[in-house]
């Protein structure tokens, strides 16, 4: 029989009160309601509640809640459009520049200076799946998951770097892949990689780590209880990557490996160019602390955040679409004919390791999180409350120098966010973007296509192991006919 615990009964069979010191600490922060149902709990449940509360850094969480609630509704500095000089646009880039950046990037990769950082904490809930999003198969002819497509792009970039520097690819530098999961996706992600033998990568070049969680609160900042013995918590947003890298000592791990540059991206983009040598070369050439790939906003109401300058001569940062006044969203620059606020953030970033260290310390002190009003599971059923999150782009105001690199959305941005049948950003729409791009590559390399359904509804898939961005396809494609849909491999 289980012995009564220190939070169980006293010698007379009367329920002991909550641990006094812990209750006093909760009172200090106005959170004593967490123990409201104490006397209705079993001894095991009281144990669980005490452990749950003890696991929380109450002073840090209190600071975050107070700072974040206080910042609500405060006037933000006025925003200005990003100066044209901060953006490398597609039309102004010369072929010579692109080739120079490509070579610079490959050299840095072969020298082991690049790591890849994947934000992969989300489940595919909106896709109708409880699996991690990266496990999702969007329906390409190969049946590959998003994780596999990304892993194979890393393998291809490694091979290109080895060939460019005439190194034996077996002994040349590996690109280390750091994958941020959440408590909801960690175990399933690790198992998926293990069961697929890391998609051809070496197991030691992949590191998994978890983002943190933070309590969900009511509008007055009180903890919401998910059960009578557990505080409701949610992941701390993709910006949680900075504190997670710090607390897991992975920033030191990167430094010990000689890594200087980090390519950071979100998992749900089927066209993401992981470890893109051109972007890396551009980043090194510009000598900036932070950079982002951007695409032109398609229309004023498109639901994407945009880069802006915060205040006169202030830092570049991102304003979410929901926070951008409609008149500003529709304003046109008469000189260029473009929207004044046209540079969309699509979560494709490059940072120096020095800058990541600076951000991890700065954001921790800042303590202002974004508040998202959501339905939170609670002891009273689903209740409206606040989730606190940091976003990856919260780093940009800390950057002494930032550069934006325009890419074409049809080449690098195929978001997978909503289930098939939705209006935008579905597996089907992403699949078509991939097939159309790869079809253009094959035709440009001298290949031909036959198809039994209209070509606009199909196409071919080029394995990332064959070609990173359409290069080196002539030997495979010239003069050959492919029947769409199919996958082209070696």
Automatic annotation (TrEMBL):
The keyword Oxidoreductase does not apply. It catalyses: N-acetyl-alpha-D-glucosamine 1-phosphate + UTP + H(+) = UDP-N-acetyl-alpha-D-glucosamine + diphosphate; N-acetyl-alpha-D-galactosamine 1-phosphate + UTP + H(+) = UDP-N-acetyl-alpha-D-galactosamine + diphosphate. Keywords: Nucleotidyltransferase, Transferase. GO terms for molecular function: UDP-N-acetylgalactosamine diphosphorylase activity; UDP-N-acetylglucosamine diphosphorylase activity. It holds the Pfam family UDPGP. Pathway: Nucleotide-sugar biosynthesis; UDP-N-acetyl-alpha-D-glucosamine biosynthesis; UDP-N-acetyl-alpha-D-glucosamine from N-acetyl-alpha-D-glucosamine 1-phosphate: step 1/1. InterPro entries: Nucleotide-diphossugar_trans, UDP-sugar_pyrophosphorylase, UDPGP_fam. Gene3D superfamilies: Spore Coat Polysaccharide Biosynthesis Protein SpsA, Chain A. GO terms for biological process: embryo development ending in seed dormancy; embryo sac development; pollen development; UDP-N-acetylgalactosamine metabolic process; UDP-N-acetylglucosamine biosynthetic process. Belongs to the UDPGP type 1 family. This is UDP-N-acetylglucosamine pyrophosphorylase.
């Amino acid at each position: 029989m289980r012995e009564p615990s220190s939070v169980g009964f006293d010698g007379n069979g009367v329920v002991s009160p909550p641990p006094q010191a812990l209750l006093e600490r909760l009172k200090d922060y106005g959170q004593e309601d967490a123990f409201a149902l104490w006397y209705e709990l079993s001894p095991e449940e009281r144990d669980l509640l005490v452990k749950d509360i003890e696991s929380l850094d109450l002073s840090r969480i209190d600071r975050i809640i107070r700072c974040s609630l206080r910042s609500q509704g405060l006037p933000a500095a006025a925003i200005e459009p990003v100066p044209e000089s901060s953006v490398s646009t597609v039309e102004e880039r010369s072929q010579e520049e692109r080739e120079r950046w490509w070579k610079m990037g490959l050299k840095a990769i072969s020298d082991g200076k690049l790591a890849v950082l994947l934000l992969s904490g989300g489940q595919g809930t909106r896709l109708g799946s409880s699996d991690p999003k990266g496990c999702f198969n969007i329906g390409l002819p190969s049946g590959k998951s998003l994780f596999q497509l990304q892993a194979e792009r890393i393998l291809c970039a490694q091979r290109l770097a080895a060939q460019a520097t005439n190194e034996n690819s077996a002994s040349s530098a590996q690109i280390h892949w750091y994958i941020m999961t959440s408590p909801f996706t960690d175990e399933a992600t690790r198992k998926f990689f293990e069961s697929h033998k890391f998609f051809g990568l070496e197991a030691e070049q992949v590191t998994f780590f978890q983002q943190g969680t933070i309590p969900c609160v009511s509008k007055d900042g009180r903890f919401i209880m998910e059960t009578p013995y557990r505080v409701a918590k949610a992941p701390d947003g993709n910006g949680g990557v900075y504190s997670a890298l710090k607390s897991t000592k992975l920033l030191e791990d990167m430094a010990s490996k000689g890594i200087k540059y980090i390519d950071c991206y979100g998992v749900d983009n089927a066209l993401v160019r992981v470890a893109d040598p051109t972007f890396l070369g551009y980043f090194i050439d510009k000598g900036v602390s932070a950079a982002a790939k951007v695409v032109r906003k398609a229309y004023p109401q498109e639901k994407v955040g945009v880069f802006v300058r915060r205040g006169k001569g202030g830092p570049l940062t991102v304003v979410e679409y929901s926070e951008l006044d409609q008149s500003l969203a529709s304003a046109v620059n008469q000189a260029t004919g473009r929207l004044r606020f046209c540079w969309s953030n699509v979560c494709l970033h490059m940072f120096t390791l020095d800058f990541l260290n600076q951000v991890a310390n700065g954001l921790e002190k800042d303590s202002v999180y974004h508040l998202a009003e959501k339905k939170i599971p609670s002891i009273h059923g689903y209740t409206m409350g606040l989730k606190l999150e940091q976003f990856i782009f919260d780093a940009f105001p800390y950057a002494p120098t930032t550069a934006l690199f325009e890419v074409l959305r049809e080449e690098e941005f195929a978001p997978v966010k909503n289930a098939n049948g939705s209006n935008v950003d579905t597996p089907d729409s992403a699949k078509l973007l991939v097939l159309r791009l790869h079809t253009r590559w094959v035709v440009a390399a001298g290949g031909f296509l036959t198809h039994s359904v209209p070509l606009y509804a199909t196409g071919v898939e080029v394995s990332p192991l064959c070609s990173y961005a359409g290069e080196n396809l002539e030997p495979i494609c010239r003069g050959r006919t492919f029947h769409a849909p199919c996958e082209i491999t070696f």
